[in-house]
Amino acid sequence: MSMKIERDQRRFREIVRGKIRENLRKYITRDEMIGRKGKDLVSIPVPYLDVPHFRFGRNGNGGVGSGEGDVGTPVGQGGDAEGGQGQAGSDPGAHVLEVEISLDELAAIMAEELELPRIEPKGAANIQQQKSRYTSIRRTGPESLRHFRRTYMQALRRQISSNSYIPERPRVVPIQDDRRYRSWQTTIEPEAKAVAIYMMDVSGSMTDEQKEIVRTEAFWIDTWLSSQYDGIEVQYIIHDAAAKVVDEHTFYHTRESGGTRISSAYRACIQLIDAKYSPSDWNIYCFQFSDGDNWGEDNEQSITLLRDRLLPAANQFCYGQVESPYGSGEYLKALETAFGHKHEKLVLSDIENKAGIYESIKLFLGKGK
Asked: What are phi and psi of 268, to 5 degrees?
């Protein structure tokens, strides 16, 4: 019985997985995610999936096998079903089930549907190494690890408690039971270190709708990168004419009214990398979102910083231009002119609306850098 239940559960999970994959585009583009359930789980609605269950009738109301019946009597319960409302209709009812799924499994489904390649970290970043740390004390061990201070203190306590310690002749002689040794614990630490740096224009031309697109796309990008790296770090930079590093809440809920200088965001990003994330040790992923507005004379300076500092340091630099009724959209054209469409590390995406999130994610993550 136990094996049959487990088999049924696996089959049900396969059905759920298939429905999620089938409707993945809708989840991404329409923000159908219900929300997080703790650190590693999310709850999402799976449509048109009816969970098998028993349906009980009402006692004493007849039915198949109760009484002889007359010719022409309808089989089944007559009248309105309990709890029914209104007129009968011809359309099927909607069955929606909320299911909990791990972020790792969600990332795997996304990888299958979007045909994402596994990321190959540069250098030895995909190797795990063992590290031993001396964190405790034990009674046995090699003489090379003997803890002299602990051994001395134990011997001193023993002699004082046994009245064999003479203050006039303070001689402490440890015996075997007094000896204490340092003890170590071995932990496995991945050498892979990765950081995702998000940059967003929060000037007056970026509306709440554009920020919602950025939030949704960033969630799916984080889900994928977290499945590739254990403990990826995330940093956020907002800018108008000036830039600053902020926390996640500030990143998604700040709106300014000033002009736009993209070079200010690039400088803040470069300072962050120089201070904390050496390119020789870290896999760096930069994601910039803007409506394409930039102070005219700043384009040249921004492109110079991108070419000379950010692209050499990053595994990949992704620019997503979110179309806005107030933005000019000129910066994407400037990047295309400067770098073309097939730069090794630079990925450009034009996100017209929420429907464009799906293809933008595929563009950004499809290289597997």
From this structure: -65, -40
Q: Are residues 241 and 314 in the same domain?
A: yes
Same domain, 210 and 325: yes
Name the burial class of residue 231, with classes exposed (0-12), middle (13-18) and buried (19+) by CB atoms within 10 angstroms of its CB.
exposed
Tens digits of per-residue pLDDT, 261-271? 999 999 999 99
For residue 203, what are its two tokens? 């000037």
Per DSSP, the residues of 42-108 read: EEEEEET-PPP------TTS--TTSS---TTPPSS--SPPTT--S---SSPPP-EEEEEEEHHHHHH
Whether 72 maps to a domain, the answer reads: no
Residue 294 has, within 13 A of its CA and on its CB side, a CA count of 26
* The pairing of beta strand 41-47 with beta strand 96-102: antiparallel
The candidate with the shortest Cα–Cα distance to 283, out of 213, 192, 358, is 192
Token reading at 187: 């932990």
Question: Tokens 């039971």 — which residue?
Answer: 177
Q: What confidence tens digit (pLDDT) does each residue in 272-285 have?
A: 999 999 998 898 99
The range of the structural domain enclosing residue 221 comes to: 194-365
| Residues 244, 356 within the same domain | yes
Q: What is the pTM of this model?
A: 0.61
User: Is there a domain that residue 18 lies in?
Assistant: yes
Question: What is the overall mean pLDDT for the chain?
Answer: 76
Q: Do 299 and 285 fall within a single domain?
A: yes
